[in-house]
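This entry is listed below:
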Amino acid sequence: MFLFERTAPRWVVLVIDLILCTLSFYLAYDLRFNFTIPDVEILLLPTAFATVLSVRLVSFLISRTHTGIIRYTSYKDSQRIFLTLLSGTVLLCIFNLISFRIYGRYFTPYSILMIDFFLSMLALASMRVIVKSAHVEWTRKKGNKTDVLIMGAGEEGMVVKHALEQDAGINFKVLGFIDDKPKLRKRKLEGIPVFYTKTDLEDLLRANKISSLIIADKDVDTKRINELIEICVKYDTKVQRAPRAGNWINGKLSFSQIKEVNIEDLLERDPINLDVKEIRNQLNGKTILITGAAGSIGSEIARQVILYNPAKVVLLDIAESPLYELELSIQEIKHAGNCESVIADIRNIDRMRRVFDYFKPEIVFHAAAYKHVPVMEVNPSEAILTNVKGTKILADLSVEFDVQKFVMISTDKAVNPTNVMGASKRVAEIYIQSLSEISETQFITTRFGNVLGSAGSVIPRFKKQIENGMPVTVTDENITRFFMTIPEACQLVLEACKMGHGGEIFIFDMGKPVKIAELAKKMIRLSGLEPEKDIRIQYTGLRPGEKLFEELLNKQENTIATHHPKILIAKVRKYKFDQIANDIESLTNLFKTQNNMALVSKMKEIVPEYISNNSEFEKLDRREI
């Protein structure tokens, strides 16, 4: 209890170590002389003991091996003991040589020193391991242990098992290992049986109350995880996942790092391969301006851009607190480089001119925009002021100040738009594309769908509703959306920036569209609940401007393949710059009138494929007919 419930004083550990060294030295003599020590050696024993223990004491005090907390002994502690004993033994060998030179005899045979070294190492290390193991068992919660399964009967699985055993705050028992390799079936790892997933998993879940299936195998793909979840939810078993070795804290896995599988994991696709060398050549030593830097996309672009050693990254946003949070998070990134935060409104031409004149950016990533469809549907003047006029100001200043590349973040909602937000982004696309035809600046548009975890994404909202036991609200049973993770989208933005020569609209491979209702059901099951039984799905109807299916191309657009399998170039209709510049001037001048019908009507004139859906502006389409 003294060792288990409190920390033993250092002197106690030192005394125990010396006692173990004494016993080891005496046992070394017994082993060397076959348990019959000659009389001549017995006469030398007091001197030998005094010399050996003095060296051990001094070496322990210098290396401070006794200061570690025994019940938390690690590999580093064992390594330090080994080096301390080894250095002490080397010193004793030197003393033995000196004794022979002076007195003509050794104070103890070299063989005894060797045997003593190995016995002392074994004794000191074993004592610490025994105390540590006993402490784990002593402090572990009493009562019934919770059964878990570990998927992966290999090195990763063993690491997870050890992490569970070493955490005294949990009370898990590893019932078995599960593996997709049939040849491992009926084998054992540290006495724990290995089962074959295909034939044994459901039987195990049915026969036992298993709390969690922990996926340790790093090679399990998204499709397989989906299959495992479908099986486990039927038996109220959670599916958790251990992080990859590179994400362990201080190189060690702890139980707290094992997290439940979330919906983002299930929507992941194959890793994106970037042309890192070319991207580095593009960004290295450049001054880069990122608008909307505090937003979901802008902040991730910033985090990725700084890894390519730019001369300066200007983080521009109108939102003070999120920008400050971004600044703090970037400071934590190793080699973050030279970043500067700027509070500014892209709609204010005087402020933006000062930014361009002072920093002289060479590359601009334009992520600032209003993007919430229902909000913009009732505030079209603000959508036009930010998404159209703000973009025009930035684009015009980029030409004026000789920016090399201007990359605009657009949206799939700009394709055959049915809402104000999508139409405003399409107008911005048209302007920068036409401007690219008459300027040295290379204007590039990137177009993709919803990003997981972004502000306004359905996933954070669904999570909050599930946590509060509320119905999960879905607008329509058949509504589908494309999804991509934020890092994935931003990686492709950098790749498109490298590829673009001006005037292109790059569209990204968003994978298969996802039914939002199915997404909601999966999230409910991942929470250990049953759709319609524990959490109800409530269909609220399409919101103003919303459509059932998003598209990445309109009916008149085709695509051109690029060298990157996930990036295509949209072949879109060309616009004459003078005409579109006049149209946009007329559109932005209408802001003063605050006449929503006039504003939207002008947008429909610029973008003929803009047909409103579930909106008060549908009357404008009927009038045109």
